[in-house]
Amino acid sequence: MIDYEKDGAAIYRQSFATIRAEADLDRLPADVARVAVRMIHACGMTDLVDDLLWSPNAVADARRALLAGAPILCDVNMVASGVTRKRLPADNEVVCTLTDPAVPELARALGTTRSAAAMELWLPRLEGAVVAVGNAPTSLFRLLEMIEAGAPRPAAVIGVPVGFIGAAESKQALADHPSALEHLVVRGRRGGSAIAAAAINAIASEEE
Ligand SMILES: C/C1=C2N=C(/C=C3N=C(/C(C)=C4\N[C@@](C)([C@@H]5N=C1[C@](C)(CCC(=O)O)[C@H]5CC(=O)O)[C@@](C)(CC(=O)O)[C@@H]4CCC(=O)O)[C@@](C)(CC(=O)O)[C@@H]\3CCC(=O)O)C(C)(C)[C@@H]/2CCC(=O)O
Q: The pTM is what?
């Protein structure tokens, strides 16, 4: 028999205690720290906190929007799948338009990725929505272009695409953007769909 922890609640408890002991959460506002714990939990990197950038109202505005029934717009299905439906305070719609049948042709016509083209289909739902980008840098760049062109403003953007091409740049562009969208970002190459979903799950629920 291998000796390992089998109690789910105990695993979570020990995990969160380890994160709180190892991560430098003190420099974060309390609401951001609560979300950061879950983001770290999703990736196992306690130094993730060193790369967090946030705007002052990002977590509060995202939470308020969810309570008011706002949809959650996700760049990829992996983010949408990671959102725990039972945590959502208003049975919020979780939307990923990436696999809409219109997207491949739209991407060809626009000369861009499917991830970016899929953003066009967000337009009817974008006003006041909570946006979660965990994978595709081109989605985040395209969102900023759409805002510059006068698209409706989301309540907040969780911007954590991962990777080497455009990831760091797209997140910095969000943080520095003149539109001052409320944002929570992991700067640099780190990020990913699991971190994006974990951030939404933390914002959606009041308890840990
Ligand atoms: C360049 C892309 C990157 N994808 C990365 C990492 C992962 N992607 C996975 C999967 C299954 C998907 N990625 C797509 C979004 C696909 N990935 C791209 C694109 C080519 C362009 C996006 C961009 O640069 O902004 C993108 C296709 C597109 O035309 O938009 C995906 C749609 C591809 C597909 O299966 O058709 C798909 C999303 C599926 C979904 O809806 O959930 C991985 C699981 C990789 C794998 O399969 O091995 C992984 C997941 C990472 C995560 O945590 O989300 C990068 C590294 C992010 C990279 C962008 C940056 C770079 O440096 O290249």
A: 0.96
